[in-house]
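Justification of resources, computational component.

The compute hours requested in this renewal are based largely on the per-chain cost of generating structure records like the one below. Each record pairs the submitted sequence with a full structure-token output. That output is archived, and it is also reused by downstream analysis tasks.
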Amino acid sequence: MENIVEQQANIKCTRKRIFALLTQCVEDIRKTVTASGLEMLDVGVGVERHRTSADSYIVDMKLCV
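The structure output for this chain reads:
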């Protein structure tokens, strides 16, 4: 039983870290774009983040190249 609890804690921690990395990446992209005097859609990047009822997030990133 303890192994399952540890695994679930590890999954939760890993998900939080991935979300933090994604957030940091999107912020860095946004800062780079705005520093160039452009909008995200000008360079073909669209990002939407939706909170679900299960207290998690859905991140939609669209790249038009």
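Helices lie at 2-35. The first strand starts at residue 45 and ends at 51.
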